[in-house]
Hints:
It contains twelve helices and eight strands. By secondary structure, the chain is of the alpha/beta class. The protein is globular and about 60 Å long. Residues 127, 130-131, 134 line the site of one 2-acetamido-2-deoxy-beta-D-glucopyranose. The site of one 2-acetamido-2-deoxy-beta-D-glucopyranose (NAG) has 5 residues, from loops. Pfam families: Lipase_GDSL (PF00657). Keywords: Glycoprotein, Hydrolase, Signal.
Amino acid sequence: MKNMTALxxxxxxxxxxxxxxxSSFTAVESRCILFNFGDSNSDTGGFSAGLGFYLGPPxxxxxxxxxxxxxxxxxxxxxxxxxxxxINYLSPYLESSAPNFTHGVNFAVAGAATDPSVTFPLSxxxxxxxxxxxxxxxxxxxxxxxxxxxxxxxxxxxxxxxxDISMAFTANLSYSQVIEQIPSILSRIKDALKTIYExxxxxxWIYNTGPLGCxxxxxxxxxxxxxxxxxxxxxADYNNAAKVFxxxxxSLCNELNSEFKKATIVYTDMFAIKYDLIANHSLYGFERPLxxxxxxxxxxxxxxxxxTCGQPTxxxxxxxxxxxxxxxxxxxEAANQLIAAKILSSKYSKPQxxxxxxxxxxx
Length: 363
Ligand SMILES: *[C@@H]1O[C@H](CO)[C@@H](O)[C@H](O)[C@H]1NC(C)=O
Ligand SMILES: *[C@@H]1O[C@H](CO)[C@@H](O)[C@H](O)[C@H]1NC(C)=O
Ligand SMILES: *[C@@H]1O[C@H](CO)[C@@H](O)[C@H](O)[C@H]1NC(C)=O
Ligand SMILES: *[C@@H]1O[C@H](CO)[C@@H](O)[C@H](O)[C@H]1NC(C)=O
Ligand SMILES: *[C@@H]1O[C@H](CO)[C@@H](O)[C@H](O)[C@H]1NC(C)=O
């Protein structure tokens, strides 16, 4: 009996090792390079590394089986994109313990916004990139560093703006006051894109912002009465503000597409992708699109301030795959996998460019 258990354990470890080997084999196929800028939606551990913040279990339980600083039960959409691009998961720029920047760098940090008052605003992430590029030039004579061509052929992705909008709402600004903030958010995004372009980036991949009115946190903390919700139970003001921002971002992308002669600028409709998961949740096998898997308080939202996922006062649902939201703000691995598949399909992108063809070896 005892031997049997030991044998099963060995078999299990063996399979695990094979999986690990396979994933590292596929990863070296491609020479695509991705530099990502953003907030917790695409933070692969930057906040944890940068602030020494311990994101406790059960985060990571679905895939990594340990906490990695990702706000999810497993992989983020950007991890699934890396798999699709056949590159390693991106190391956070701020990770000092054995980062691997061969296939790019992730500058995204949870809590980031364009607003310069946050800890790692977009402008700082861009400066970090410029620092990285300068250091790379210095290190090039020693080999193993990105070439100028690598920087030129890399894809630069941006997923930012959600925290700017939600911060405006939580500061108790009225809807119209929130809308008045949007031009300055867009102008800071424009500055960032311009700096990347002026420093040799030609492939800019820009996500709009998701339906933040559908987040369990937003609904639990901000909904006052049922007249404020839309057809799918989401807070209409929050989603409308996101849509106004997104329309502005699309015009900005169109404007820059004609201004930056050498650039390809692709706008991807994250709002439509995420809203589809919520509106058509049963099609995707989700039972509770507006309820956090990991939280406190039970239906309808399972979200209570200061008793959020990762704290001892919160507990997770048994099956994350039945939920869109992991912790009330961030998506489950199951949702992230669908999000990535939709991004890779190019159906939500303007122009309809495949990320896999944009980010490829040009050597
Ligand atoms: C980083 O990743 C690349 C691609 O998978 C690999 O070839 C390289 O050996 C790794 N570098 C280190 C220091 O592990
Ligand atoms: C990068 O180096 C250039 C000079 O080569 C300098 O002007 C610039 O300020 C540097 N940027 C950073 C962020 O270090
Ligand atoms: C916003 O309003 C709520 C409810 O009136 C209040 O509890 C909260 O402290 C206010 N927040 C700010 C930042 O003023
Ligand atoms: C519900 O909230 C909206 C928006 O704040 C407000 O205009 C409306 O009067 C409220 N309705 C009720 C029944 O309280
Ligand atoms: C839900 O799915 C249907 C059928 O695929 C699609 O036409 C519709 O646009 C989806 N709804 C949303 C909000 O994406």
